[in-house]
Amino acid sequence: MDMPLPRDVPAADNVPDYAVSEIAGAIKRTLKETFGRVRVRGEITEFKRYPSGHVYLSLKDESAKLEAVVWKTNVPRLAIRPENGVEVIATGRIDTYADRSKYQLVIDRLDYAGEGALLARIERLRLRLLEEGLFAPERKRAIPMLPRVIGVVTSERGAVIQDIRTTVARRFPRRILLWPVAVQGAGAAEGIAAAIEGFGALPLDGPVPRPDVLIVARGGGSLEDLMAFNEEVVVRAAAACPIPLISAVGHETDTTLIDFASDRRAPTPTAAAEMAVPHRADLLADVAQHEARLRHGLRAVLERSRRHLMVAERGLPDLPGILGGLRQRMEDRAERLELALPVLVDRKRGALGRLAPRLPHPREGIANRRAALAALFGRSEVGAQRVLARGRTSKALVCFSPAPVRALLRENAVRLEGSGARLGGVSYQAVLARGFAFVQDAEGATLTAAADVPAGARLVLTFADGQVGTTADGAKPGGGRRRDGRDPSVQGALL
């Protein structure tokens, strides 16, 4: 480019004379016109984010370093998050900074420089998180067998959410809550992490039900497309999620860092839905199998118990035989008791007969009591007369009347006669006075049956007024009628 020569420079001298601002402006214009937009491959170093929002960094290779800047208006539009050590391809324009005579690359786009760089970055992050223990097996939780609510973090457009809904409805219909997010591009990682944390922050009894299991999914794509699921913010959110989490990112051959932090990894979103809910037919088959096993077990227990009872029954004594023996013994005792009771009664009657002659007649007792009462009455009369005599001789004494004494004596006499009558009523001598006789053999044994008296036996008959000896002739008595009209064959009771 031709520059005008200053007027004060001799024509012979071809070296131009520039002011600082002029040469700086010329250089800036030259760089812009020569390079325009460029793509620069290099490794990020000296990365720094300022409070103003601008990002400053450098790109380097084996022999050179280029300073670069990302203005804050372009930072949210970057597809990747810049960090030191990552090889990238930066797209932008070359510009100069006149105050310091520096040139720099103004970046408006960042891309990873091939899969090798991406894989190296992912591996470094994986090792660091592994060392922190975020991928430890003991952190893994079991997926609930039959969740009430399933939370899904994925794009609201596309086949992923449809596959999950179809699979759940086919296997075991459950309620599905979708938290729609962008699954790639700028801000995707932050959105995914916020969705995971949002589901985990739902209260158990809130208006929006908290899911029992969480599915984080997206379809297949390139390594760069899946990079949002390799970001540290997403991995940490998955590891800290209080809800059991299933990751289903990409195809079966794709592996992202969220797969290491999740509780279960599914090769596809459809497989994740199959992990989340069981198949209704499988459950019914399991129930039928358990029912069959339970029935078989119960039959085995009953059969085993029946055999034990049979063995125990053989060891028990013969209950019918024992009862039969006891019944026979009881009947024998009853028969012996029936025979022994009359003998016991006869023995007691004999003992009573032997004691009868020794008992005094009630009349004798009554006569003795009357004599004693008469003597007592006589003494009372005499005493009363004496008291009366003394009362007549002494006016100071209280007059005494014998009438109460006589009444008391008469009352006692009546009471004594009543007791005597009752005693006479229960005495065997009163029975003898009614015409009965008390029969004894020569030894004094009481005889109560005619069969007990042999012919020619000596007998002693006791009547009310005395005893008479006689000899049994063995003849039956005549058929004359008794004076009282009773049948002589019916013997009355002695007592």
**Which spans have pLDDT < 50 for at least 5 consecutive residues?**
488-495
> In CATH, what is the class of the domain at 137-278?
Alpha Beta
Mean pLDDT equals: 83
By DSSP (H or I, 4+ residues per run), the number of helices equals: 12
Largest sheet: 5 strands, mixed, barrel
Gap from first CA to last CA = 172 Å
Radius of gyration: 68 Å
CATH architecture annotation name of the domain at 137-278 = 3-Layer(aba) Sandwich
Give the spatial strand order of the biggest sheet.
Answer: 1-2-3-5-4
User: What is the name of the CATH superfamily of the domain at 137-278?
Assistant: Succinyl-CoA synthetase domains
CATH third-tier fold name of the domain at 137-278? Rossmann fold
Domain Exonuclease VII large subunit C-terminal: 134-469
Protein name: Exodeoxyribonuclease 7 large subunit
InterPro entries: Exonuc_VII_L, Exonuc_VII_lsu_C, OB-fold_nuc-bd_dom
Subcellular location: Cytoplasm
Q: What does this protein look like?
A:
With 495 residues, the chain is α/β, with parallel strands linked by helices. Among the domains are: 20-112, OB fold (Dihydrolipoamide Acetyltransferase, E2P) (Beta Barrel); 137-278, Rossmann fold (3-Layer(aba) Sandwich). The protein has helices at 20-35, 114-132, 159-171, 188-201, 232-240, 257-261, 269-276, 280-315, 319-355, 362-393, 403-426, 428-433, and strands spanning 37-49, 55-60, 65-70, 87-97, 102-112, 149-154, 175-180, 213-218, 245-249, 264-265, 438-441, 458-463, 466-471. The strands form 3 sheets. Strands 1-2-3-5-4 form a 5-stranded mixed barrel. It has a 5-stranded parallel sheet with strand order 7-6-8-9-10, with helices on both faces. A 3-stranded antiparallel sheet has the order 11-12-13. Helix 5 (232-240) links the parallel strand 8 (213-218) and strand 9. The chain is rod-shaped, with a radius of gyration of 68 Å. The N and C termini lie far apart (172 Å).
